[in-house]
Design brief:
Organism: Sphingobacterium zhuxiongii
Largest sheet: none
Helix content: over 70%
Protein name: Tetratricopeptide repeat protein
Distance between the termini: 77 Å
Radius of gyration: 31 Å
Keywords: Signal
InterPro entries: TPR-like_helical_dom_sf, TPR_rpt
Number of helices: 29
Structural class: mainly alpha
CATH class of one domain: Mainly Alpha
Order of helices and strands: HHHHHHHHHHHHHHHHHHHHHHHHHHHHH
Strand content: under 5%
Length: 581
């Protein structure tokens, strides 16, 4: 949740003043406590009363960044440059805007402009550039360390700088220097809570969630009125829920929502912007039931952020299963907001909606963008596969096949083989139904038409199942090889048109069923269904041998089938036929 963290360790600690307080110090203290609406009111008053004070514009612009209002932030920063051209911080602000938009070169140009000619003790531009690289949509922690190290040289006694350095080192997964930096910050100012929180969440990147939760809970007990701790608790509970057993997921995830609500109550922010940030957290944490309630409330608010279409689109897809409506809302979102404000999950939902609505090319393009934009805490490729599997379980087979096609096309995906297996069996299901024309309707014309309709599905099945059957990873071999060979053979049997034109069968399926028998013989943990596959394989191979006039081979296969199932009707019938010759 990058935007919600922008100021966790931004400013000097101190008592938070009342809304009527007009000092910049009070506004900064409100920001440090993440009381953004309160700080915004103060800063707007300060800008009006002290129009030539450039710092006021900078901090007001930062509030707009927290609320994801990039254009408003840019406007305020530009006003700061116009009214106080000597204040470098607003130039930094314009650079941060470019960084938020993904324009790295544009950001660097502004940062260079802001830092050219700085005095030795003029460290704040360096500090805020360092923080910008930490909090950017795509963080550059090495750049952050570079700028913050320079800032530290100019301000060895400002605890904010080592706090930010701790955040940067934590981002680089360098736990020891991160811990030392936080410790240095506390040495300079032991009342700061940001470095204490930083120390607590170092272990979060190592997924040691129990440790983090324990430390944050202790901090919350010692500082029960400090809101940001509860936001970090909310995020940690969410991440913990993702790794929890399925029966514990909902309980743990609900704790995330409860702590975020506690955070909102302590920051005293009931503004529309705060509600939008809460909705963003619900998106982030996957709490779609709560999101539905919040999004419906937001949709009735005048002047609400266009992100409301995000929430409505997600709900239409995930809760209502109204994929046409979901695509409609997501298309509105994409048309109304700057592309820099679109998150990875937006492309995920829109991509899946596009595919389900028949726009495969656009959908796959969107999903590729989603994967490229995902954070280290996200695995959107997994979500596509899991969504596809859920649709399969819900009986939405066509939807499932279309979604499985995305991870199935990426050999680097952890779900490459799973997706190819399910897509292959699904395509076989479609093709086999098409070629199974009832005898009463099986005119040559109907059979030919149905075969042509089934052919691309069956060929797709063979392609996907062949990839799975040829896998060398032991876990894939153990999980899928026998089944993949069986359904591949059935797909080839249908492609050979054995049902309607046995005399002209080419034996497309012979290789698969022969390999299947070898795989079954080599397996030790077979289900009853898989053991039955051997009987089927012998029957199909025996029948093909019979068609080609090899009676001895046919008898051998049917005899093997009857060893597995002495009452197999097809094998018994074929043995009778062969014995009569």
């Amino acid at each position: 949740m990058t935007n919600s963290k922008l100021f966790l360790s931004l400013l000097l600690a101190g008592a938070v003043g009342t809304v009527s307080a007009q000092s910049l110090k009070d506004a900064k203290a409100a920001m440090e406590a993440e009381q953004y609406d309160k700080a915004k009111t103060m800063l707007q008053q300060l800008v009006e009363k002290k129009a030539k004070d450039g710092e006021n514009y900078f901090y007001l612009g930062q509030i707009h960044l927290v609320n994801d209002k990039i254009d408003s932030a840019a406007y305020v920063f530009q006003q700061g440059v116009t009214n106080a051209p000597k204040e470098k911080l607003n130039v930094v602000g314009l650079g941060i805007v470019e960084l938020e938009k993904g324009n790295v070169s544009g950001a660097e140009s502004k940062f260079t402009e802001a830092t050219t000619g700085l005095g030795k003790k003029d460290y704040l531009p360096l500090y805020y550039i360092g923080r910008a690289y930490i909090d950017a949509p795509k963080p550059d922690y090495k750049k952050a360390v570079e700028y913050l190290t320079k800032a530290k040289e100019g301000a060895p006694k400002d605890a904010l700088v080592p706090t930010a350095l701790g955040d940067a080192y934590a981002g680089l997964r360098e736990s020891s220097p991160a811990y030392v930096a936080y410790r240095d910050a506390l040495t300079l100012n032991d009342k700061l809570l940001a470095p204490k929180i930083g120390q607590a969440i170092i272990s979060r990147r190592a997924q040691a969630y129990d440790v983090v939760l324990e430390q944050l809970t202790t901090l919350a007990g010692e500082n029960p009125e400090y809101g940001p701790i509860y936001r970090e608790l909310a995020e940690t509970y969410y991440l913990s829920s993702k790794k929890a057993p399925e029966d514990q997921y909902r309980e743990i995830n609900q704790k995330a929502v409860e702590n975020y609500k506690k955070y909102l109550s302590l920051t005293g922010d009931a503004s529309l912007d705060a509600k939008v940030r809460y909705a963003d957290f619900l998106v982030y944490s996957g709490n779609y039931d709560e999101l539905k309630t919040v999004s419906q409330e937001l949709s009735n608010q005048a002047g609400v952020d266009a992100k409301v279409f995000r929430y409505l689109g997600y709900i239409s897809f995930l809760q209502d299963k109204d994929y046409a409506k979901s695509l409609e809302y997501m298309t509105q979102l994409f048309s109304k907001v700057d592309t820099s404000r679109l998150i990875a999950r937006d492309f995920l939902i829109k991509g899946m909606s596009e595919i389900i609505n028949g726009n495969d090319a656009q959908g796959n393009a969107d999903l590729k963008v989603a994967i490229s934009k995902q954070s280290e805490d996200e695995n959107l490729d997994e979500e596509v596969a899991e969504t596809a599997f859920a649709k399969l379980q819900d009986g939405e087979e066509e939807v499932a096949r279309k979604l499985f096609a995305f991870p199935a096309s990426n050999p680097e995906s952890d779900y490459y083989y799973d997706s190819n297996y399910y897509m292959g069996t699904g395509e076989y299901g479609v093709g086999s139904k098409l070629v199974s024309v009832p005898e009463a309707e099986a005119t040559p014309e109907v059979v030919a038409a149905k075969f042509q309709e089934a052919k691309p599905h069956l060929e797709s099945a063979v392609k996907s199942l062949d990839l799975v059957a040829k896998a060398t990873k032991q876990e894939v071999v153990d999980k899928y090889k026998v089944n993949a060979l069986y359904y591949k053979g059935l797909s080839e049997l249908a492609l050979d048109n054995v049902i309607h034109d046995a005399e002209n069968a080419k034996g497309l399926f012979v290789g698969s069923f022969t390999e299947l028998l070898s795989a079954i013989a080599a397996s030790t943990n077979l289900t009853d269904a898989q053991k039955a596959y051997a009987a089927d394989a012998h029957n199909y191979l025996g029948y093909f041998a019979y068609l080609k006039g090899d009676a001895a081979k046919a008898k051998t296969h049917f005899a093997e089938s009857l060893k597995i199932n002495a009452e197999d009707p097809f094998a018994k019938q074929m043995v009778d036929v062969l014995n009569q010759k």
